[in-house]
Amino acid sequence: MRFRRNLQRLGEIFAYEISKTMNYQTTDIKTPLGVAPVETLVQQPVLATILRAGLPLQQGLLNIFDRAENAFISAYRKYDEAGEFHIEFEYLATPLLDGKDVILSDPMLASGASMEVGYQALLKKGNPKHVHLVVIIASAQGVEYVTKHITADNVTLWIGAVDSEMTSMSYIVPGLGDAGDLAFGAKIDSH
Fold first, then answer.
1. Which residues of 113-144 are buried (b: 16+ CB within 10 A; e: fewer)?
2. What letter does residue 152 receive in the DSSP assignment?
3. Does domain 2-20+44-184 have CATH number 3.20.20.70?
């Protein structure tokens, strides 16, 4: 539970920082004693995450962007008999993304392949104004992969920390471990 809550806290911090890049308008808010001009977002972002590990991070983002629409992507590592993996994409639920800011979150950026798959899946649902990719810990190789394969000018990569090492199985060292398992419990079948 503590790990999950800490992921939420990090989501709140990222949301605060990302909010500084967004467009605002002055809106008059009525209080019991009068009217006050307040800066509000011109448009709420769409919060997207890769299931299941990304759920606590997305909840933290949602705690700040509490009127945001949500999108969910199912992507996971599928291993073959030789121990090699590819990213399996199974599911996408999202609103129309045309002209919207999208925040795509996944706690760990190891190889970078799942982030690329998630990003490409979102583009099938519209043409976002800007995409913010949010990760807590990334490998240096994952950052290099993402910056090489996601080259659009309207994409910003937000990273909490970069670890320099990644194992031959594409696990970040020291990393965190499996963020989904730490937040929700171990899986019976890891594909």
1. bbbbbbbebbeebbebbbbbbbbbbbbebbbe
2. -
3. no
Q: Compute CA distances 187 → 59, 64, 127, 169, 183, whole Å.
A: 21, 30, 35, 18, 11
List the one residue out of 124, 120, 107, 131 whose CA is nearest residue 22: 131
Please state the pTM of the whole predicted model. 0.87
Structural domain boundaries in the chain: 2-20+44-184
Q: Of 101, 115, 137, 143, give the one whose Cα is nearest residue 7.
A: 137
Pairing mode of beta strands 172-173, 165-166:
antiparallel
pLDDT single digits (tens) 129-168: 999 999 998 999 999 999 999 999 999 999 999 988 877 7
The rounded distance, in Å, linking the Cα atoms of 45 and 129 is 10
